[in-house]
User: Which sequence fits this backbone?
């Protein structure tokens, strides 16, 4: 018995030694910066002309909450995350189903290969292509013959629509490839069942495709979330576009601005720390909401509610 305990202890110690470099890296590059940012975000300098006098309070947070630029940054990031990401996922799913049932196998493989090849193109090139269509050159507006624009002209659409459109532009190919592969895998795995039962398209989606899509849905959801929340406006806006004047900040660009980066930089590190930590907490909250809205989680809630109702009925009958 003692030998078994010592062996288990030795195995646990060996496993700990193997993963200790990873734990150290997580501690140094993830947890420590978060705690340092939290600590520095409370360091408030009451006098702008000196950095030798300071106190610890919520003064930096009050400053960012009173800043209209920060309000717009929250709005732009939130709308881009939900509208841009969910529309990209919805259209990608629709296109994946359409590709699977309408296009021939050879054409389908060629099309997906073409879509997949864009992952080997740099994000910088993707941003340039987007600005050619929707930026100041206005190729998209010329094709439609519309007077409305995003970044110039008297008739401007809200900037969060521009960001949401870029999120759609960037995330759609990624979502499409993963959805199409999941649907193709489902058709291959359950081909005999589909033929024998003569399932309709809606039945395939409900009973066959949904099981395979759930396996890749979290990856799609998390990747889209990262795309949207880390959006930096400077990548898709011209240098002549004033981010502050046009209320075009995202949470990322707002925090970077007060760390001395981006357009119109300002060296107010304490304000940048407060913005960065609040952004971290807010984005964790958004991620939690997105995870709660997953179809699998909603199913669990519905099943739990049904079981709870069934138990309560049995108790009442007794």
Assistant:
């Amino acid at each position: 018995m003692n030998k078994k305990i010592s062996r288990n202890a030795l195995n646990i110690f060996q496993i700990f030694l193997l993963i200790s470099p990873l734990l150290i890296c997580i501690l140094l590059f993830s947890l420590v910066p978060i705690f340092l940012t939290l600590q520095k975000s409370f360091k408030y300098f009451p006098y702008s002309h000196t950095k030798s006098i300071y106190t610890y309070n919520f003064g930096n947070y009050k400053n960012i909450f009173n800043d209209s630029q920060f309000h717009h940054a929250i709005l732009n990031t939130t709308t881009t995350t939900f509208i841009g990401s969910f529309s990209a996922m919805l259209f990608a799913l629709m296109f994946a189903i359409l590709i699977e049932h309408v296009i021939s196998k050879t054409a389908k493989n060629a099309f997906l290969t073409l879509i997949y090849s864009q992952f080997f193109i740099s994000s910088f090139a993707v941003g340039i292509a987007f600005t050619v269509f929707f930026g100041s050159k206005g190729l998209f507006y010329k094709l439609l013959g519309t007077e409305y624009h995003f970044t110039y002209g008297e008739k401007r659409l809200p900037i969060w629509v521009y960001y949401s459109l870029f999120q759609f532009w960037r995330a759609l190919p990624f979502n499409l490839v993963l959805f199409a592969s999941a649907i193709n895998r489902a058709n291959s795995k359950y081909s005999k069942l589909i033929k024998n039962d003569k399932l309709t398209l809606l039945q395939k989606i409900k009973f066959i495709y949904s099981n395979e899509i759930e396996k890749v849905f979290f990856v799609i959801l998390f990747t889209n979330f990262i795309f949207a929340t880390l959006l930096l406006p400077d990548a898709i806006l011209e240098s002549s576009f004033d981010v502050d004047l046009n209320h075009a900040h995202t949470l990322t660009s707002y925090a970077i601005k007060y760390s001395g980066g981006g357009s119109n930089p300002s060296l107010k590190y304490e304000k940048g720390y407060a913005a960065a930590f609040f952004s971290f907490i807010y984005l964790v909250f958004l991620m939690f909401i997105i995870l709660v809205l997953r179809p699998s989680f909603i199913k669990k809630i519905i099943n739990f509610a049904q079981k709870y109702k069934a138990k309560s009925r049995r108790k009442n009958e007794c």
User: Anything to note?
Assistant: The longest strand covers residues 43-44.
